[in-house]
Automatic annotation (TrEMBL):
Gene3D superfamilies: 2.80.10.50. Residues 122-146 are annotated as: Disordered. PROSITE patterns: RICIN_B_LECTIN. Residues 1-28 form the signal peptide. Keywords: Signal. The keyword Transferase does not apply. This is Ricin B lectin domain-containing protein.
Length: 197
């Protein structure tokens, strides 16, 4: 005949206590996403032309590659998110990239009309990072029109500029003194996804 062995009451309470403690610890344990944020990813267009996108000449993540205008094609080098300026992530290795001004490697670059805009590894702006990657602009755009500008005390505020107003593929972008209403300096965007950073 089968007899059921009873478990002492205190042992049952202890088991229940440990089970409850384990559930509490699991619920309180931080996830790997703690401190990370989800950002919208955008394509950036010259003055509302959604067939053209700001991208990278040659479509490759290469330090010093010119930022340019090209037909929108959904490539990773046309997808931007905003922190202290437009940023993009290389999906192959997760590295972060930013718009910068040429020539790279010079500590005291002058922001003057016609300086080309290039791709560079992302650095935080401010005292510890590159001021040449700290573009003023929306951290969370609320209207489809944006102005991307960079400033230097000696030269004032400069804007991302569509060189000569030409939307032809591979036209490299430049900086130019900001002028209200200058259509070469008006940029619009389309939300194309999200990224967790």
């Amino acid at each position: 005949m089968f007899t059921q062995r009873s478990i002492p009451h205190s042992r049952m309470q202890l088991t229940a206590f440990f089970a409850l403690a384990l559930v509490s610890v699991a619920a309180a344990a931080p996830t790997q996403l703690t401190g990370r944020a989800t950002q919208n990813v955008y394509t950036i267009h010259p003055n509302g032309d959604t067939t053209k996108c700001v991208g990278v000449l040659g479509g490759a993540f290469v330090v010093g590659a010119a930022a340019d205008i090209f037909d929108c094609n959904g490539s990773a080098t046309q997808k931007w998110y905003f922190t202290s300026g437009p940023r993009m992530t290389n999906p192959a290795d997760g590295s972060e990239w930013a718009l910068d001004v040429a020539p790279l490697g010079e500590a005291n670059r002058e922001l003057v009309n016609g300086v080309k805009v290039v791709l560079n590894k992302s650095e935080d702006g401010g005292e510890d990072g590159s001021p040449y990657q700290s573009w003023g602009g929306p951290s969370a755009p609320s209207a489809p029109k944006i102005e991307l500008s960079i400033s230097q005390p000696a030269n004032g505020v400069m804007c991302l500029d569509l060189t000569d107003g030409i939307k032809a593929n591979r036209n490299p972008l430049q900086i130019w003194q900001c002028v209200a209403g200058n259509t070469n300096q008006i940029w619009t965007y389309t939300v194309v996804g999200q990224i967790t950073i």
